[in-house]
Design goal:
six-stranded antiparallel beta barrel, two-stranded antiparallel sheet, 1 helix, globular, Head-tail adaptor protein
Amino acid sequence: MDLADLLDELGASHTVTIEPHAGSGAYGDVFGRPVQITPCIADQGRKLMRLPTGSTVVSMSRVYAPLATVCPDRSRVTLPDGQQTLVITTLRRDGGGLDVPEHLEIVCE
């Protein structure tokens, strides 16, 4: 089961816009074309996250998106309320064949 199936079943979802990080230019970060991601869930609120590297960061928002979503680190995300944030990291939540909601967890500043 993927996240889109679960959200369709529940009848709830958000839409976020992701501008993929494309590198750095003379004036700072360069972003690709914006892509709207729906269905997804945007969770806003302070949370201490432990990254796969073992370090901890404070995340102010997380987005739970379909597993096929492409979102490189440092991408710019526009949340449903219009707030913009940058991606710290993404965490692939693959069920490994179990009937659980598979998704990409996007951890934002």
